[in-house]
Amino acid sequence: MRRFISSLSSVLLGLCLAFATVAPGLSTTTAYADTESSTTDTTTTREETPTSENLETTPEDSEPGAHSPAPALTPANNPAPTPGAHQGEAGATAPNDGALTGPGELPAAKPDAGNETPAVVPGVPAGTEADSDSDAEPADAADVPDATPGRMPEKIVQLGDSYSAGNGTGVYSDQFCMRSPENYGSIVAREFGAEYTNAACSGAVTADITKPRHLGWTGGATRTYWLPRTFFPTVEDQAAEWQRRVEAENICGVPPAPDMYYEYRNVAPAPAGSLYTASVACHLWAKPQIESVTPDTDTVFLTIGGNDANFTGIVISCFIGRDAGTCQQRLSEASRSLPELRERIAQVLSAIDTASQGNAHVYLLGYPVLISLDSYVLPEGPAGWYDAGQQLVEMQEEANELQAGVVADANAAIRTSGTPQAQPDRFTFVDVHEVFAGHGFDPRMGANQSHAWIVPSFTSFDILSFVHPNPEGWRAEAKVLAEAIRRNA
C-alpha cells in the first residue's frame, strides 16, 4: 500500500508540472487569436472600399512626397461624422478613405514660416529675448541696427534682377532665379563677415520687389480620391477636399528656396459620384522680395530697372538676332520709358526704407558698361545703317544719371524730414561705369573678347548669362561696392 501511494503521488506531481509548462502556451495562443480576429475584421472593412489597383492614375511626371498607404478604418479610430460636415470643422471628422494612389489622411500643409519676421522688442537687440527678471541695463541705442555712418554691415539683404542675382557667374544655387554665391553681394558679405540673404531674381522688374512673381509651371500629376457624398455632398466640397489632400501629399515637392512656394492648380476635374479625379498643375512663385527686409536688416544691395525697360528684348534684337529695325525700336522704347522708371525706382527705395524702419543703408548699384565700342552699326557690313552702339551708350549714360538722381532725391527727402544729424543719408548710388570702361564685350561677330568682363552672346550654352558680368566683372563690382561701404563708415 505504501508503494502504491508513493507511485500515485509521483504521477500526480508529474501531471502538475506538465500543466504548469503548457499553461503559458495556452495564454499566448488566445492573445494571438484575438489579434488575428481583429485583423480579419479590419480587412473585411477595407474590402468594401475600392482598391488602388483599379482606380489609381499614374502621373507622367515624378511624384515627390509619396506616402505609405493609409491605415484601415474601424469604428474605434474613425467615429461617424455629422453628415455633410467637412473635415476640420468643429464637431465633424471626414472619413479616412485613403488616397487611392497611396497617401492617407494627412494634416493640412502648414504655411511656410521660414521668412517670418521676429518680434522686435524695444531696447533689445534683434535675435535676443527680453528677460523681465534680469538686472541688466536696457540696450544702448548703438546696439540697435541703423544706417548711421560708422557701422559695418552685419545683416545684408540683396534684392533686384539678374544683375544682382548672379547671372554670368556660372555657379547658381537654383535655376529659377539664378542666384549665385559669387555675385557682388555674396563676395562683399564674406569680406565683412556679415549675415547675407540673396532675394534677387533673374528677370525681376521693380514690381517684383513688393509683389509675388510667377516663376512658371514645373510639372504635375493626377490623383483620384474616394470622397463619399455622405461627407462631401457637393462637387465643390469634393474639390475642396481633393485640394487639401494633394497639398498634404506634397505632390509638387519642396520649393527650391525658402522664399518660394507652389500653387496647386486643379486642372480638368472629373467627378464621378464618390470618386473625384483631377490633375494638379504645379506653379512656382517667388514671394515679394521686400519680405526679406526686416527692421534688423542694416544693409541692402540692389540693382533694378533694366527689365522695366525691356532689357531682354534689347539683347535679343541687337546682339542675338542683330536686326537693325527691331533693335532700333527696342532701344527707342527703352529711352522713352526712363521717366516712368525713375518714379518706380523711387517707390522701391521708399518701400525698402519702410520695411527696415529706416535702419538699413541701401546701396543702389548701376548697370555696367555693356559694350566696349562707342559705335556698332547694324546690320554688320557695308549695308549697315543704324548705329545701335551709339544709342545704347547714350541710353546707359542717361539711365546712370537717372539712378543717381533718384538716390539724391531720396536722401534730400530724409534731410528735410529732420536735422541732418538725426536723419543721415540712408541711400548710396554706386556707379560701376568707370571700373567697366574698356571691359564691355565687343558685339561684332568673331571679335576678340579677351578684354571683356561681360559675357558675349553665343559664347556659351547658358543663354541667360549673355550680356551679364562674368566672374571678373562680378568681382570688380564687389570691389567698388566694398569701397563705397568703407567710405560711409
Automatic annotation (TrEMBL):
One of its GO terms (biological process) is triglyceride catabolic process. Pfam families: Lipase_GDSL. Residues 32-153 are annotated as: Disordered. The active site is at S162, H468. Residues 32-43, 69-79 have a biased composition (Low complexity). Transmembrane segments: none annotated. This is GDSL-like Lipase/Acylhydrolase family protein. The lineage of its organism: Bacteria, Bacillati, Actinomycetota, Actinomycetes, Actinomycetales.
